[in-house]
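STRUCTURE:
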């Protein structure tokens, strides 16, 4: 649906996009995720045609967009600030883009009604737009974009102004809406959780480059660098050495965890002679209590911190023989004993759950 071919963008001397290459598939919910200033909005705007590119090519539906103005592209954009007209009614806002449409007034009114129903605003047509809540305004903006039947809907942090509860609700609704209309959605967000929850695939961007483009599970379980791993949630890093290698397995020696073998698919990055690092997500480690299900492997440590989160407890545990604590997250189950700071803990882990960066 969208293809970037070695896209570069300069603002004066500033190199904002540094060779973006990648493909977004038709009907996909795709997210551009990265920290502030990494270039995700700029990249989105190059699709919309609001931003020219310095070199390379952006193709939409197989067509090179060079020289095609924004209003002639099969794309439409929903902005962070709900760009709706406060002095118009909801239906006037939604029908705004149909002003020059040759259809009859009755047909247009039907289209407006359908669009409002799609975003959950059936019956709100006569309301004044300024009298709506933030979430409702964002729905109006969505309906207004969808009524034009774009092939691609571009969403620039559309939920960032909403409070947490509302944002989570709108995330679910957007997913449903995208499945229902079946068009390609491209979302810009700096919120990792939002991207993981909503996307079929995600491009993680740092400093004008795509660091990794993959589905949420691959990004989470097999991040291709420490930087991506750290940006997508929490990961524990421990120094390790590669002590042997065959085509089928890689033998590792990691402080506190001893010697063990992993699969080559768990190894990220090219071969370097620098020290390697193993990465564990906090939930892949577990504290073993009397009566716990047996774990693949076991090590031991001392609890340094306990943080209660309601459904979860985080334990920071210094594994024997290591210098820094690892974070272990445990789901709180009724009746589970709680360990205090300073207590000894048995730690269960599995070699299949970690990644090796080198
Ligand atoms: P945020 O989440 O903060 O919006 P972003 O990843 O979307 O960040 P962009 O808005 O794409 O980042 O900006 C990328 C870089 O390009 C930033 O360093 C920004 O300052 C710079 N930039 C963006 N627009 C312009 C412009 N019109 N002129 C000069 N520099 C710009």
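SEQUENCE:
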């Amino acid at each position: 649906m969208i293809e970037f071919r070695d896209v570069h963008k300069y603002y004066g001397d500033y190199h904002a996009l540094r060779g973006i290459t990648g493909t977004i598939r038709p009907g996909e919910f795709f997210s551009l995720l990265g920290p502030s200033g990494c270039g995700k909005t700029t990249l989105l705007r190059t699709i919309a045609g609001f931003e020219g590119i310095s070199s390379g090519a952006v193709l939409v539906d197989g067509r090179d967009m060079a020289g095609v103005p924004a209003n002639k592209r099969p794309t439409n954009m929903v902005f962070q600030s709900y760009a709706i007209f406060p002095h118009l009614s909801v239906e006037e806002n939604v029908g705004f883009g149909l002003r020059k449409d040759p259809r009859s007034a009755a047909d247009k009114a039907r289209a407006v009604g359908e669009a409002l129903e799609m975003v959950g605003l059936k019956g709100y047509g006569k309301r004044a737009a300024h009298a709506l809540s933030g979430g409702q305004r964002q729905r109006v903006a969505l309906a207004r974009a969808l009524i034009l039947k774009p092939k691609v809907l571009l969403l620039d942090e559309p939920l960032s102004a909403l409070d947490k509860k509302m944002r989570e609700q709108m995330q679910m609704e957007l997913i449903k809406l995208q499945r229902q209309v079946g068009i390609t959605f491209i979302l810009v967000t700096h919120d990792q959780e939002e991207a993981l929850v909503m996307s079929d695939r995600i491009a993680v961007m740092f400093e004008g480059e795509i660091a990794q483009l993959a589905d949420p599970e691959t990004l989470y379980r097999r991040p291709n660098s420490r930087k991506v791993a750290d940006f997508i949630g929490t990961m524990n890093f421990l120094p390790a050495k590669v002590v042997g290698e065959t085509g089928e397995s890689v033998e590792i020696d990691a402080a506190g965890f001893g010697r063990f073998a992993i699969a080559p698919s768990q190894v990220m990055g090219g071969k370097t002679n620098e020290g390697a690092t193993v990465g564990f997500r906090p939930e892949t480690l577990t504290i073993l209590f009397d009566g716990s299900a047996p774990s693949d492997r076991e090590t031991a440590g001392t609890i340094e911190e306990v943080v209660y989160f309601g459904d979860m407890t985080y334990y920071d545990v210094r594994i024997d023989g290591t210098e820094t604590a690892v974070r272990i997250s445990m789901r709180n189950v009724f009746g589970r004993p709680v360990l205090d700071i300073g207590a000894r803990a048995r730690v269960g882990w599995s070699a299949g759950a970690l990644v090796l960066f080198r």
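REMARK: Helices lie at 40-48, 90-94, 105-118, 134-146, 164-181, 192-198, 216-221, 226-231.
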